[in-house]
């Protein structure tokens, strides 16, 4: 039980510390960040935050802008799990920031109304403090909410992600490593099926057997939500595989399971070459890309019932030659006025 107790402590530490960050005053924000992060901690975040280290940099790059833009910020976790991955203690969290959007955030214009910014996070803890965080917040969806969405409409359904249908994603005072191992094993079998793609036939990927018939796949803004295998193929898998037929998995930072939940992620998780049309309505660019991706899974009756998928779409588009923030500024009446 000592390991289980450590995972429970880590869950509680992350859950309560990040809620406290949302309420810390501006002059105490760096201290609040330093109370949870190790002195040499690293943050690997969504574009345009990207990478930084140490409490001061993490506070300046992420938390000060977030708190300034949403002064009444609340954090609403939907999934919170903990476990061990390759000898490292991890806590994975998925949810939404909620608040009144009163000031610009990374140049996204405020709405002066309530917005919901979804996030996926994985934290590595050592001796009760975070040594590394991987975080994806959906800035493209915030642009959508602010009325300045700058790319082609999603093929799936856009909107706020719901939490787990079973409403049991937050159990901060328990862990279930045995159930988590079974959930993670199921997910890895499904991944193995996806990786059997022969570059030509959908049927070459033997993964349908691992999903419930009406599973929900919650994609990021730009892709959207799909239901069942037919919807998943039509709205995401076919456009994606046509665009990236050589995609492969690399650089996982962790795989963790806890009860009926499992989380995997990489930085980048998927590497590929943009070789075909269809994805995000873009013609092929021939450019190599690396995709920052996380997957949060809920298992029910031995099958995957729900899958939430944070992807850093703005960073992906940047690698494909599209500056999403520049397009957003242009649509807001702030076009580039030089050739530089």
Low-confidence runs (pLDDT<50, min 5 residues)? Answer: none
Given helix and strand content, the structural type is alpha+beta
CATH fold topology of the largest domain: Nuclear Transport Factor 2, Chain: A
Q: State the total count of DSSP E strands.
A: 13
Global morphology: globular
Q: SSE order, as H and E?
A: HHEEHEEEEHHEEHEEEEEHH
Distance between the termini: 60 Å
Strand content: 25-35%
C-alpha Rg (nearest Å): 20 Å
How much helix is in the residues? 25-40%
Could you explain the architecture of this structure?
- The chain is built from eight helices and 13 strands.
- The protein has two domains: 144 residues, Nuclear Transport Factor 2, Chain: A (Roll), CATH 3.10.450; 151 residues, Nuclear Transport Factor 2, Chain: A.
- With 340 residues, the protein is an alpha+beta fold.
- The model has no long low-confidence stretch (mean pLDDT 96).
Question: What topology emerges from the helices and strands here?
Answer:
Layout: H1 2-21, H2 29-36, E1 37-45, E2 51-53, H3 54-69, E3 74-85, E4 88-100, E5 114-126, E6 129-137, H4 139-145, H5 177-194, E7 211-218, E8 225-227, H6 228-243, E9 248-249, E10 252-258, E11 261-273, E12 288-300, E13 303-308, H7 313-319, H8 324-331
Parallel strand pairs: 1-6, 7-13
Antiparallel strand pairs: 1-2, 3-4, 4-5, 5-6, 7-8, 9-11, 10-11, 11-12, 12-13
Helix pairs in contact: 1-2, 2-3
């Amino acid at each position: 039980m000592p390991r289980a107790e450590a995972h429970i402590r880590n869950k509680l530490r992350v859950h309560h510390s990040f809620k406290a960050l949302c309420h810390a005053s501006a002059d105490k924000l760096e201290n609040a960040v330093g109370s949870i992060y190790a002195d040499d901690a690293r943050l690997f975040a969504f574009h345009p935050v990207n990478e930084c280290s140490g409490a001061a940099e993490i506070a300046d790059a992420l938390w000060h802008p977030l708190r300034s833009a949403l002064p009444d910020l609340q954090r609403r976790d939907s999934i919170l799990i903990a476990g061990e991955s390759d000898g490292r203690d991890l806590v994975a969290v998925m949810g939404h920031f909620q608040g009144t959007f009163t000031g610009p955030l990374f140049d996204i214009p405020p709405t002066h109304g309530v917005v919901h910014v979804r996030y996926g996070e994985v934290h590595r803890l050592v001796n009760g403090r975070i040594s590394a965080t991987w975080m994806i917040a959906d800035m493209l969806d915030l642009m959508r909410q602010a009325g300045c969405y700058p790319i082609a409409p999603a093929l799936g359904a856009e909107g706020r992600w719901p939490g787990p249908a079973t409403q049991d994603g937050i159990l901060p005072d328990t862990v279930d490593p045995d159930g988590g191992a079974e959930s993670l094993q199921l997910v890895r079998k499904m991944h193995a099926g996806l990786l059997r793609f022969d570059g030509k036939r959908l049927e070459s990927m033997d993964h349908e057997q691992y999903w419930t018939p009406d599973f929900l796949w919650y994609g990021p803004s730009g892709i959207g939500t799909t239901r069942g295998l037919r919807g998943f193929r039509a709205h995401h898998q076919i456009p994606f595989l046509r665009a990236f037929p050589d995609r492969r998995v690399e650089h996982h930072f962790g795989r963790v399971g806890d009860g009926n939940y499992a989380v995997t992620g990489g930085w980048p998780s998927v590497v590929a070459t943009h070789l075909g049309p269809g994805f995000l309505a873009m013609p092929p660019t021939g450019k190599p890309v690396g995709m920052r991706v996380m997957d949060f899974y809920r298992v029910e009756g031995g099958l995957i019932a729900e899958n939430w998928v944070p992807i850093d779409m703005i960073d992906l588009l940047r690698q494909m030659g599209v500056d999403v923030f520049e397009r957003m500024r242009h649509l807001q009446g702030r076009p580039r006025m030089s050739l530089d």
